[in-house]
Write a structure and sequence with these properties.
Layout (H helix, E strand, L loop, with lengths): L1 E3 L2 H9 L5 E6 L9 H6 L5 H22 L9 H10 L7 E4 L2 H12 L7 E7 H15 L14 H12 L4 E4 L6 H5 L2 E6 L6 H5 L9 E6 L4 H10 L4 H5 L2 H15 L2
Parallel strand pairs: 1-7
Antiparallel strand pairs: 2-4, 3-6, 4-7, 5-6
C-alpha cells in the first residue's frame, strides 16, 4: 500500500508505471476488491450461492433480452452476456478495470462525491503478468493448450467460454469482450474475473500463483479530492466525456456541484 499525500506525488507514482497495467478506482480506501456478485451474496459466500445467482440472472436476462434490446445487439458468448448485464447494473462476477489510471480515479471520485472527505483508493495491476501466470496454469493442466497473450487478442470470448469457465480454473482472467458498447470503449474499459465461480476475486489474486505479480494500492487522502478533480477536468476526463450522453451530462453537473459545495 502506498499512501499519497499530494497531487504531484500521485501523478509521479502513476506515470512511473509501464503501459501493461490496468487500474480500478474505489470510493473508499477500506473496501476490498469485490465484484458486484460478491457484494450481493455477502459474507455468507458459498460456491452454491454463486452458481445459483449467476445462473438465475443469466437465464432471466437472456430470455427477455430481445424484448428490450433497442441496439440490435447479438451477444454470442457468455463473457459478452455478462458484460452487457454488468453494463445495465445486474450483479456479476466481473470487476470493472480500465487502461487509464485517470479514468479510474474519476470513477472513484464520482462514487465518493457524497462523502468527499473519505480516503479513496487506486488499484494498479500488472495485466501482462497476471495473464502470463494464468496461461501457464492452464498449460500445466492441459498439454494441448497453446494460447499466448498474443493469440488471445481476438479470441478472449471463445477461450473463456470453452476453456476457463468450462473447467472452472482457479485463475484470474482479464477480458475485453468483442461486443463492446460505446461507453465501455470511451472508458478504455476491461474486466477482471475469477475463472472459478467458487472463489472470490481477491482470494485468487492473493493466492501463491500470483505472488510474483506486481499489484499496488494507492491510498489518496480525502483532502486531495478537489485537487484531483481539478486535474481530471483539465484532462477533459468528466462524466460528459466518459458517458457521452445526457446521463453523462447530468452526472457531470452533479459532480461539480458536490465538489464545489465542500
Amino acid at each position: 500500500m502506498v499512501e499519497i499525500d499530494s497531487v504531484a506525488s500521485l501523478i509521479q507514482q502513476i506515470n512511473e508505471l509501464p503501459n501493461n497495467y490496468l487500474f480500478r478506482g474505489q470510493a473508499d480506501a477500506s473496501w476490498h476488491l469485490q465484484s458486484s456478485l460478491e457484494r450481493v451474496v455477502g459474507p455468507n459466500w458459498s460456491a452454491e450461492k454463486a452458481y445459483q445467482f449467476e445462473d438465475f440472472s443469466l437465464k432471466s436476462f437472456c430470455s427477455k433480452f430481445h424484448l428490450y434490446d433497442r441496439e440490435n445487439l447479438q451477444p454470442s458468448s457468455k463473457l459478452a452476456w455478462l458484460s452487457i448485464m454488468q453494463h445495465h447494473g445486474i450483479p456479476t462476477r466481473l470487476l470493472d478495470f480500465t487502461e487509464s489510471p485517470y479514468v479510474a480515479l474519476y470513477f472513484a471520485l464520482e462514487a465518493s462525491a457524497p462523502a468527499l472527505q473519505r480516503d479513496i483508493a487506486l488499484y494498479a495491476i500488472d495485466y501482462s503478468a497476471v495473464m502470463d501466470r494464468s496461461i501457464e496454469y492452464i498449460r500445466s493442466k492441459d498439454n494441448g493448450f497453446s494460447e499466448t497473450r498474443v493469440t488471445l487478442f481476438d479470441r478472449q470470448d471463445e477461450v473463456f467460454d470453452q476453456v476457463v469457465d468450462r473447467f472452472s480454473y482457479d485463475i484470474i482472467w482479464v477480458g475485453e469482450p468483442k461486443l463492446l458498447n460505446a461507453r465501455l470503449d470511451r472508458q478504455a474499459g476491461s474486466f477482471l474475473l475469477s475463472g472459478n465461480r467458487d472463489l472470490r476475486i481477491e482470494d485468487v489474486l492473493t493466492s501463491p500463483l500470483y505472488s510474483s505479480v506486481n499489484m499496488q494500492k494507492f491510498v489518496i487522502r480525502g483532502s486531495l479530492v478537489p485537487g484531483v478533480f481539478a486535474l481530471l477536468r483539465k484532462m477533459n476526463i468528466t462524466s460528459k466525456s466518459l458517458y457521452g450522453d445526457l446521463d453523462g451530462l447530468a452526472r457531470s453537473i452533479r459532480m461539480q456541484m458536490q465538489i464545489y459545495a465542500v
